[in-house]
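It is worth pausing here to work through a concrete case rather than discussing structure prediction in the abstract. The textbook approach is simple: state the sequence, then state the predicted structure, then interpret. We follow exactly that order.
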Amino acid sequence: MEKLYLLNEQEYMQFQYKAAKQKINMKELVEECLKLFEWEFNQHGITYSYELEEGYVVGYANSLKQVIDNLIQNVIRYKTEETEVTCRGVIEDDMYKLLVTGEGQFIPEDQRDKIFERFYRVDVSRNRNTGGHGLGLSIVKEIVKKHDGQTGLDTDVSTHSFWVRLPLVKK
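Step two, the predicted structure:
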């Protein structure tokens, strides 16, 4: 229910605090979020790496932190035993694309377009090992949409790259 509350809070913030948008260095923001996950990575025996280009977007820093946190949590929650989490930030035309990648549970092809929908879970059993309510990626989608961006998933059998694209601004 906490994530549902956060989703509603995000929607409220977008309408109430238009003046609070700021220029955000995505490289610094992602590095900050990764540092917060170091303990959890160590607890789960997960190695991680990152390669981030410097790029600036306009938005709400706390909301974009929530996006990054949810993407990383998703990879951790559904990881296979020997996964490495990688974060890449690249500039593509006029967009900043952030990819969070890891080895994870198989996602059937017919379910991949539903992965960012509210309450959707590939693991319909809602088993205790994976937990969650199917809200993390839907929150990502809503926040990114409010920032005029896009979300997506690139996957093969077991390697999944969850990505967001946000409009760049000049330094």
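Step three, interpretation. The helical segments are 2-16, 26-36, 38-44, 61-77, 136-146. Residues 2-169 form a domain with the Heat Shock Protein 90 fold (CATH 3.30.565.10).
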